[in-house]
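Methods — Computational structure assignment.
A single polypeptide chain was analysed. Its primary sequence is given first, followed by the predicted tertiary structure written as structure tokens.
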Amino acid sequence: MAGPFSDLPEVPQIDLGATFSDAGSSVSGAFSNAGSSISGAFGDAGSSISGAISGAAGGIGASLGFGGGSGEGFMGFGGSGLMAKKKGFGKAHFVPSGNPDWRVKIKVPDEYMELAGEGILKPLQSTDGYLVFPYTPDIALISSAQYTPTRPVHSNYPFYSYQNSAVTQVTISGDFTVETEDEGKYWIAAKHFLMSASKMAYGENEILPTGSPPPVLKLSGYGDHIFNNTSIVIENVTMPLPTNVDYMLISNFANDVEGTYVPVNSTFTVGCIFIHSRQKVKTFSLDSFVRGDYVATGEFL
């Protein structure tokens, strides 16, 4: 069957095999003679280099413990062979045992934990009834004093009168990662708790007082002088479900039917307001605040 190029004229063929065969014989002969000289020259040097490298390798092996000796060796690679006795990290820890827990965490109300039972909030029992941020979150704490300007006519500078002071909303932005089913269940419990803590007790209830507003929570973190059981309420919660990460199936949890897919990496952002009762504010003392008397109770920031 004629192909698309069947009408093209034939191109004269050159016997490349014969041509390269003759050239190859000449090149082979040239390199054969040169190779004999080069081989002789490098033969003696190779013996010396081989001996030097062999001796150095023995020294390095002894230092790193790669040999077959019984010593542990440098970096713990010793033993009967390479990596035969590698040191583990079973006893590694980041802080000395017995130190206080300075992680950022929010106390779950006792009524919520009573309702948890075997349900969706049960994983929070593993952290003693707290929602603990597994990684150190980003927190922006802003304390402000408000001044009202008075602007006289035909003047260059306004006069400011003090109005009030406040600690504005604080935003807690913390990462959550999920590598195991337990971490996935904790992610679900954390999400459900934050959603629950931003709702009032509307409708019919048995344990929570009907008509009560969202609960006042306790925020702790970083030790005594930053957040020490500080009273907060949750104003808003952001829990993105990103598209650029994998999702893990969490099944057989809290009476689920088909399971839940949770992101393996996500960021919870919680907007909080520091709150104080009128009775507490009436007892505020700037003298006590400056002295640091409120540190133990975490009442005022």
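Note: The chain has two domains: 16-76, 105-278.
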